Amino acid sequence: MQPKTIGILGGLGPETTAEFYLDLVRIATVRTRPPVCIWSLPLNLKKESEYISIGKHISYYFSLLKQGATALQKAGCERIVIPCNTVHEFHPRLATASGVPITNLIEVVGTEVQRRGWKTVFLLATSRTLKTQLYQKVLSGFGISAMIPNLADQRKLDSLIQGLLGEKESKTHQGFLEGMVARSKSKHIVLGCTDLQLLFSASANVVDSMHELAADTARQIIS
């Protein structure tokens, strides 16, 4: 059976796109590597920061995503994946506009959380992802409650994520994240931002959205 060609709509940020590609290839490679195309969005850095934190530039983002999806379709991709949680607020519009299926990352993660039998999770994501209720809606449909950081911690988390997008890591990040998780008193964590995999590892108590998308995409390639 000929494997499906996957299109990655990436650049959100570049390091995570690269990690996602590597993770996908590791999982999907049996005797041959999977056919994959990557379209990296030419994002304006200031607009990226303002979108993540305060939800500006909606039309700008959708236009870039639609342009990228069209390019991947023309390249012969049979399915598109977007390793970024926040822009999944555009998923319904993109899926309608696209001529090929686009995986819904939020639903993939929700399905995995349900499979693990978790009833309550601590959700780490951008302010924009929380405001659009992407995860809260999907998780509640599975009967799962989502706790979120307090306002002060969320502002620090947004700043941390924007630093990761700029490929700036700090030893203080790990301490902040560990402290925030400890204060939540939650046993189960959902990384609702793919960039956080740069600081966390998937484990029995952590669902990493980037890894779950890679695993699901690998299954799609050979199905």
TrEMBL record:
Pfam families: Asp_Glu_race. Transmembrane segments: none annotated. Coiled coil: none annotated. Keywords: Isomerase. GO terms for molecular function: amino-acid racemase activity. InterPro entries: Asp/Glu/hydantoin_racemase (IPR015942), Asp/Glu_race (IPR001920), Asp_race (IPR004380). PANTHER family: ASPARTATE-GLUTAMATE RACEMASE FAMILY (PTHR21198:SF7), GLUTAMATE RACEMASE (PTHR21198). Belongs to the aspartate/glutamate racemases family. This is Aspartate racemase. It comes from Candidatus Doudnabacteria bacterium RIFCSPHIGHO2_01_FULL_46_14. The lineage of its organism: Bacteria, Candidatus Doudnaibacteriota.
